[in-house]
């Protein structure tokens, strides 16, 4: 086998490969992300003679002969974490946990390791960033375990996979993938080629030995380190750990999941003894809500299977320039423009004379159409200076003709609102009809609306 060394340019955000340097990546549209890396071009054969086939052999198998009775999932000890994973850790899966440095990835995975070790699972935590002493100090803050949890400080991929094959733990944590290096690739640790090579080696190792493997990947704004997006297509599951509003709250969301839905989110709070789950995030989202203020309204949206109450705030002021300003935080900017256009056309409100700002509090980003009615209610409330009673929630989709359309899972939303003491619900009339057809009669008063005109009349 003849080898020849060349250099190639990679985008460190998404891993796009190019022969030439480019200012903007044509794939992810980020600027100035290309870096040069040596790659070994193989003229024949593949690395290690591996052909990329899975551990199951190379012959086709009939569907009915495939054994679907896989080992049951492990419980993470956190119901928030298990739900995001789709019901627990799948044995032999490769999970990437991305997030900004300092957000709490190592803490989250150390807690996961402690929980699984408590449940008697064999766990190996490999850190390339911290010394064993530092890990020990962190574990002391969080809690101890008598279970089979061991630590290793190592960055060489060859030695790591050898050890994993020898020890065969049920769970392995690699903190972080950007500090690991493989002798197979020539570039520096953290480069696109290295990060991919290491992830690939871990994938093979995880599948062959049935080790559930969690990789930590730092999201880097600047610098020369490859980001976790480079690995998204290699791993089974991609989770992002982010801070909701820059405070102590952390949101775990899934961007890709081969074993579950990607709509679920988990909410955590960083405390002095590690992360704590927040089991009722609605209360958290509504904490500190202004009373008797115009322009604020509560809505109930679905985050995966869970209803969540959020406050939508609107601010409308007369514009002082020719061009009205619009700003949307937490929702899609174009959707806001569209809703304002509907308001202008269907209700005859002169929205082009006003600046409009919409904010979803609690740092959530919402893409659900059920938000529409609450956004318009907040805008109308601010424009007309009408206070929406504080025991009212609003949800529903708005169409281009100003009609209010039905949304799914109305019952769950109403139940969640009732739990937190809401007494009135403004919702699509069609949903009210369907709910009464199903014999559901909630304690809260249901006010069905068919169009925006009816909404204005209600307010
Ligand atoms: P860490 O898990 O090291 O972040 P990452 O691995 O994502 O870089 O978390 C670091 C932050 O968390 C640090 O600022 C300290 C804080 N922290 C707490 O507030 N409480 C704790 O119990 C622990 C362990 C960390
Ligand atoms: Mg860390």
Question: How would you characterize this protein structure?
Answer:
With 459 residues, the protein is of the alpha/beta class. It folds into three domains: 2-47, no CATH class; 72-279, Rossmann fold (3-Layer(aba) Sandwich); 284-458, Ribosomal Protein S5, domain 2. 26% of the residues lie in helices and 27% in strands. It is built from eleven helices and 21 strands. The chain has helices at 79-85, 105-118, 132-142, 157-167, 192-209, 281-286, 333-347, 372-384, 410-419, 429-437, 452-458; strands at residues 3-11, 17-18, 34-42, 94-99, 123-127, 149-153, 171-175, 212-218, 237-243, 249-257, 265-271, 274-277, 296-303, 306-318, 326-329, 354-360, 392-394, 397-398, 404-405, 424-428, 445-449. Strands 6-5-7-8-4-9-10-11-12 form a nine-stranded mixed β-sheet. Strands 13-14-16-15 form a four-stranded mixed β-sheet. Strands 2-1-3 form a three-stranded antiparallel β-sheet, with no helix packed on it. Strand 13 (296-303) and strand 14 (306-318) form a beta hairpin. Residues 44-53 have low confidence and may be disordered. Bound molecules: thymidine-5'-diphosphate and magnesium ion (MG). Thymidine-5'-diphosphate binds next to helix 2 and helix 3.
Query: Which structural class is indicated by helix and strand composition?
Result: alpha/beta
The span between the termini is 77 Å
Supply the CATH class of the largest domain: Alpha Beta
Q: Regarding quaternary structure, how should these chains be classified?
A: single chain
What radius of gyration results from the CA coordinates?
A: 26 Å
The portion of residues assigned to helices is 25-40%
Bound molecules: thymidine-5'-diphosphate, magnesium ion
Low-confidence stretches: 44-53
Mean pLDDT, to the nearest integer, reads: 87
Q: What's the CATH topology name of the largest domain?
A: Rossmann fold
User: What percent of residues are in strands?
Assistant: 25-35%
For the report, how would you describe the main beta sheet?
A: 9 strands, mixed
CATH homologous superfamily caption of the largest domain: P-loop containing nucleotide triphosphate hydrolases
* General form: globular
> What's the number of structural domains?
3
Number of DSSP E strands: 21
CATH architecture of the largest domain: 3-Layer(aba) Sandwich
Number of helices: 11
Across the major sheet, the strand order is 6-5-7-8-4-9-10-11-12
């Amino acid at each position: 086998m003849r080898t020849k060394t060349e250099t190639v340019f990679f985008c460190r955000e998404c891993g796009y490969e190019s022969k030439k340097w480019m200012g903007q990546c044509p794939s992810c549209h980020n600027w100035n992300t290309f870096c040069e890396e040596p790659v070994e071009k193989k003229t024949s054969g593949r690395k290690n003679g591996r052909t990329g086939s899975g551990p199951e052999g190379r012959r086709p198998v009939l569907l009915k002969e495939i054994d679907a009775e896989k080992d049951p999932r492990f419980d993470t000890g956190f119901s928030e974490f298990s739900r995001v994973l789709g019901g627990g850790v799948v044995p032999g899966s490769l999970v990437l946990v991305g997030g900004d440095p300092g957000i709490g990835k190592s803490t989250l995975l150390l807690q996961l390791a402690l929980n699984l070790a408590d449940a008697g699972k064999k766990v190996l935590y490999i850190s390339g960033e911290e010394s064993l002493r530092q890990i020990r100090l962190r574990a002391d803050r969080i809690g101890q375990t008598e279970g089979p949890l061991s630590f290793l400080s190592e960055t060489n991929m060859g030695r790591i996979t050898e050890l994993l094959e020898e020890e065969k733990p049920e769970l392995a944590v690699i903190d972080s993938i950007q500090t690991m290096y493989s002798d197979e690739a020539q570039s520096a640790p953290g480069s696109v080629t290295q990060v991919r090579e290491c992830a690939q080696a871990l994938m093979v190792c995880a599948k062959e030995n049935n080790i559930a493997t969690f990789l930590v990947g730092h999201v880097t704004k600047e610098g020369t380190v490859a980001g976790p997006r480079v690995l998204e297509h290699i791993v089974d599951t991609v989770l992002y750990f982010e801070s909701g509003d820059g405070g102590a709250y952390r949101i775990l969301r899934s961007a890709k999941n081969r074993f579950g839905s990607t709509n679920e989110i988990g909410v955590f709070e960083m405390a002095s003894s590690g992360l704590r789950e927040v089991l009722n995030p609605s209360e958290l989202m509504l904490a500190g809500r202004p009373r008797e203020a115009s322009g604020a309204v509560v809505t109930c949206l679905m985050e995966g299977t869970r209803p969540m109450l959020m406050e939508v705030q609107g601010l409308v002021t007369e514009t002082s320039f020719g061009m009205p300003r619009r700003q949307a935080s937490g929702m899609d900017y174009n959707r806001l423009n569209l809703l304002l256009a509907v308001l202008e056309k269907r209700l005859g409100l002169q929205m082009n004379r006003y600046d409009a700002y919409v904010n979803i509090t609690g740092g959530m980003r919402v893409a659900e159409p059920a938000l529409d009615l609450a956004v318009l209610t907040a805008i109308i409330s601010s424009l007309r200076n009408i206070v929406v009673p504080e025991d009212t929630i609003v949800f529903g989709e708005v169409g281009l003709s100003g009609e209010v359309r039905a949304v799914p899972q109305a019952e769950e939303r109403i139940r969640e609102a009732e739990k937190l003491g809401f007494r009135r619900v403004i919702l699509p009339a069609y949903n009210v009809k369907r709910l009464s057809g199903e014999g559901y009669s909630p304690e809260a008063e249901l006010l069905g609306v068919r169009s925006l005109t009816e909404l204005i009349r209600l307010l």
